[in-house]
Amino acid sequence: MVDGDDKNDMGYLYEAMDRAKKILKERNPKAYRKWWAIIDKRWEMTLHHDLHASDNVHNDGEVMRGTMNVITRLVRTMNERLDAMTEVERYRMKLGIYGGYDMRCAAQRLTPAEWWIQVNYQQASTNPLMYVAKRVLSQTTSSSQCERNWSTFSLIHTKIRNRLG
Fold first, then answer.
1. How confident is the model over 105-118, as pLDDT tens digits?
2. Is residue 57 predicted with pLDDT exceeding 70?
3. Residue 154 and residue 143: Cα distance in Å, rounded?
4. How far apart are CA 40 and CA 49, in angstroms?
5. According to DSSP H, which parts of the chain are helical?
6. Which of 8, 14, 39, 75 suits a disulfide with 81, CB 3.0-4.6 Å?
7. Domain limits of the chain?
8. Backbone angles phi, psi at 126, to 5 degrees
9. Is 116 within 8 Å of 133 (Cβ atoms)?
10. d(CA 21, CA 31)
């Protein structure tokens, strides 16, 4: 997912990690905790930042705190921050433009960045949250941390070594 060239995956990364852990728990109900510890350690060291959580605003306190931290860092003035934070609540509650049928359908077909641009067009003004969303969603991801693991793995697991008894 982080090595794709066709789209920016920053907005999907947090949710993908949660789904992967859930599947691991379902498939390995007795041993999943050991694997979760390894995943969580790597997640905390390299991937888990407020920026990764900010596209998935829901009732989860960690995600909401991350969203507010990103807004605080990215928005210049206090008034703009307060407007963006108010807009987060409207988004979460699906009020106004966020609850409309057209925008819900558009969410199924458009990338998150394209969807936020449509929100801005629909409102015929600058949406305070759209500025933050565009900046966050335009971030790219990198597989450099994974590359290191794959290199180590390929040194250990070779055709010759796999044949050794």
1. 888 888 877 888 88
2. no
3. 16
4. 13
5. 10-27, 32-42, 50-53, 61-74, 78-92, 101-109, 112-123, 128-137, 144-156, 159-163
6. 75
7. 61-137
8. -85, 115
9. yes
10. 12
